[in-house]
Amino acid sequence: MTERLVLALDGHDGSGKTTIASALALRLGGIAVRPFAGATGGMLFEAGQREDVDALIEIGGSAIETAVSTAPEGRPVVLDRAWMTVASFIPESEAFFSQWRFWVPTTLCWVPLEVTLSRLACRVDEDTEPVQWHERYSKTYLKLAQRSGSLVLRTDHEDVLSCVDKLEIWARSIVDQ
Hints:
Number of strands: 5
Number of domains: 1
Strand order of the largest sheet: 2-3-1-4-5
Radius of gyration: 15 Å
Strand content: 5-15%
Low-confidence stretches: none
Structural class: alpha/beta
CATH class: Alpha Beta
Number of helices: 8
CATH architecture: 3-Layer(aba) Sandwich
Helix content: 40-55%
CATH superfamily: P-loop containing nucleotide triphosphate hydrolases
């Protein structure tokens, strides 16, 4: 792909987005970027806990802008989390939707709660959250995808290669528009 393409895979923990984002970026000759990694993610989480829409927009927007602007020029960028993650902290906030400016074509990687919990149980390096917490975010991401008309990819129904095949077709349709 020769045109600059920026797209995002978003979703709750354990949905497969990081694995698939990396594979898709490789397929497209691009780069996968995690805009909310490290301290930025912590700041975003804290702003979300306070339900501080202005801080969420500032932190999230700045992180995405930096991720895209520092990626190699001319190569596709696959964001591993984007606007849905920011909105997941305050999904009913019309203020967010009216103020957010960093809209990126997004596919939601989604799995049912029991799959999320099973996948997360295999991770030894992460703290675990209560089931209700995961249930809330899983439902929230799905509502955000439905609200925005985003593609929903059930990563528990297909292997990584099949997911990447579908996403490559989606990515090419974005470039062709």
